[in-house]
Amino acid sequence: MAALSHSAKASILRSLATYKLGFYSRFVVVSGAIEAEEQVVVCTNGHQMPQDSKFCTVCGAGPGAAQRSGFASLNAPTPPPVVAPAPNVTPTPAAPVYAPAAAAASFSGLAIAALVTGIIGISVLAIIFGAIALSQVKKRGLRGKGMAISGLVLGIVWTAVWILAIVGSSQTYTINFSTTLYGTTCSQLSYNYSDFNQYRPVVVYSDTGQQVASGTYGSGIDGGNYAQSGNYVDTCTFKTVIRDIPKGLNNYVVDDNGEGYGSGVSYTEHQFATNNVAMNRGYSSN
């Protein structure tokens, strides 16, 4: 119990003095607690008299001096409650709680697109898709970083290839070269053209006799045309594509007989610049 204030203690003392509570006639404050001094009234012969009695019930004498018999505390602290000891029970261990497994992150669709476009050579899209996919992987935690990087690298490689091809093509010619044989079909070549076939080489020489490019004929194509005589005759045409012919040589010699520079047909650079060069054989026959 908390200690009483001075005013509270004084109030209690006045109340007890007024109503003469029990056997307590004097009060003492000890260590913040109010204690009442218990006094016993005795007669002149020493016999204990009842409270408020005028005469001794033993000898009939009057009251003598009061004697102290001890103190009783008015606010003694309440003893603490008795708590029974807890039973010796072995606690049951709690079951372990496992956190749910995190869901696997999904793939970035743009990473897949970057890889596919990089493989097929669409370099611009591969670079764009790869860059965006890498950003998604970093910000959203998506999967597919390896595919995005692969697509990006392939896009850069293809871009370099295209640039080199464009630069290189500006320094060279690529021509579609063809030879038309008049007066024969491809399946029944005449005696004059019996050595023509789809594997026949076509060689391009510079005007100084240096070989600068070559190609190989493909399968012959049957057709028909009018000869100089005005008659319609059968034809057989062999074609090839010759690449990387250097520019600036002024004149070129093309040989498809296999006999070298001296047996070839001469062409100008202007003819090569048209990208289509044709050779007619036996045009005047029939």
Given the C-alpha coordinates, what overall shape results?
A: rod-shaped
The total of beta strands comes to 11
SSE class: alpha+beta
How far apart are the first and last residues' alpha carbons, in Å?
Answer: 142 Å
Rg over CA atoms, rounded to whole Å, is: 63 Å
Total DSSP helices: 5
Question: Any overview of this molecule?
Answer:
The protein has 286 residues and is of the alpha+beta class. The protein has helices at 6-19, 109-120, 123-140, 145-169, 269-273; strands at residues 24-30, 33-43, 63-73, 172-182, 201-206, 211-216, 221-226, 232-246, 251-255, 265-268, 276-281. A 4-stranded mixed beta sheet has the order 7-8-4-11. Strands 6-5-9-10 form a 4-stranded antiparallel beta sheet. Strand 1 and strand 2 form a beta hairpin. The chain is rod-shaped and about 185 Å long.
Characteristics of this structure?
286 residues, alpha+beta, four-stranded mixed β-sheet, four-stranded antiparallel β-sheet, 5 helices, 31% strand, rod-shaped
